[in-house]
Design brief:
Helix content is 24%, strand content 35%. The protein has 348 residues and is an alpha+beta fold. The chain has two domains: 213 residues, Rossmann fold; 119 residues, OB fold (Dihydrolipoamide Acetyltransferase, E2P) (Beta Barrel). A six-stranded mixed beta sheet has the order 6-7-8-3-9-10, sandwiched between helices. A five-stranded antiparallel beta sheet has the order 13-12-11-14-20. The two termini are 31 Å apart.
């Protein structure tokens, strides 16, 4: 049995439904659920914690069916994006709120792990957003929950504070070996924290698996688009026991996926970071795919640059560091050569 599992969970709120949600995670897993606004992420968490009663399905924690238990009997912690701290209580009293008996040793231990032990006598309005979120996290962890649920915990924070909190939560979760379910729309959360990932849309899980499965082998074009994977249309023109060759805008792209037949119309998925760019044709390389493309555009986002590349009709993206972009001196309309290993090309 898994440490925590949800099986065939459905809920009908009239205006919204969750439909047959199933997944299982182990102790210590960091599980991110991502999806567009209105997909049902928060409703799923609130059903797990016991706020909503499911129409059908089973929720199991440590081999115990908790589906019908009241929230206070589930030993599950919950953190929201708005911190939900009591303004009239100090940080210490906020942290102690969930304890049946105030335990200074526990409070100072968890405060030390989260680097807020020097803030215990201060009130929430005197704390920064990141400090308030750490107090909220301490309050959830001090009662030693079996499972911690987090609903967009970083959405109200600036980029630098988010990065620091991600690192801190990653370290704390490993030290405490706590199991976390974290819903988010930010792929940086997923890349930096997740061991397992699910994509949800319209109340349904579209895909569940480890992070590499989701990012490298999306199950549908929607999943691929949502996680930033390139999707290109083509058809199988040749194959052998090692590779499948797909024609994409008259370019031949090889994949190690061998489950399609000659003549099949397919979609191939390629991560932007798995595309290497050259201004001159590279020779004496072991990679199967050396493809010509035209630079269609470029978008700078912080220290990264997304290069839009055009074949005949289809446009897709690669990613470079800002330094590499300047060194290559890429201009719109110039011809470039792409190296894409067949092992990184997936057929969706």
């Amino acid at each position: 049995m898994s440490f925590f599992s949800v099986k065939d969970l459905s809920i009908d709120l009239k205006t919204f439904k969750l439909k047959d949600i199933s997944f299982a995670i182990e102790r210590g897993d960091y599980f991110c659920i991502i999806g567009p606004t209105g997909a049902g992420k928060t409703i799923l968490l609130e059903t797990i914690v016991g706020i909503y009663k499911p129409k059908s399905g089973i929720i199991t924690l440590k081999d115990k069916d908790i589906t019908k238990l009241y929230p206070e009997n589930r030993n599950i912690g919950m953190i929201y994006q708005d911190y939900a701290l009591f303004p009239h209580l100090t940080a210490k009293d906020n942290i102690a709120y969930g304890l049946k008996v105030k335990d200074d040793l526990k409070i100072h231990k968890i405060s030390g792990l989260l680097n807020i032990d020097h803030l215990l006598d201060r009130f929430p309005h005197t704390l920064s957003g990141g400090e308030q979120q750490r107090v909220s996290l301490a309050r959830a962890l001090v009662v030693e929950p079996e499972l911690l649920l987090m609903d967009e915990p970083f959405s109200a924070l600036d980029v630098q504070t988010k990065a620091k909190l991600r690192k801190l939560i990653s370290e704390v979760s490993k030290k405490l070996n706590i199991t976390i379910i974290h819903i988010t729309h930010d792929l940086d959360d997923v890349w930096n924290l997740a061991k397992k990932v699910a994509i949800i849309r319209d109340g349904e899980f579209l895909q569940f698996g480890n992070i590499n499965e989701i990012m490298d082998s999306p199950s549908t074009p929607f999943v691929a688009d949502f996680v930033g994977t390139n999707i290109l249309d083509g058809f199988v023109i040749d194959k052998n026991e090692y590779v499948t060759n797909v024609s994409v805008d008259d370019k031949i792209i090889s994949s190690i996926d061998n489950s399609y037949k000659i003549g099949d119309a397919v979609k191939i998925a390629i991560r932007p970071e798995n595309i290497i760019l050259f201004k001159k044709r590279p020779y004496e390389l072991s990679a199967r795919n050396v493809i010509e493309a035209i630079v269609d555009d470029a978008f700078i986002e912080g220290r990264l640059v997304f290069i839009m590349l055009k074949l005949k009709k289809q446009v897709f993206k690669a990613v470079l560091t800002l330094n590499s972009y300047h060194e290559l001196d890429l201009k719109k309309g110039i011809k470039v050569f792409l190296i894409i290993k067949a092992t990184t090309v997936r057929i969706v």
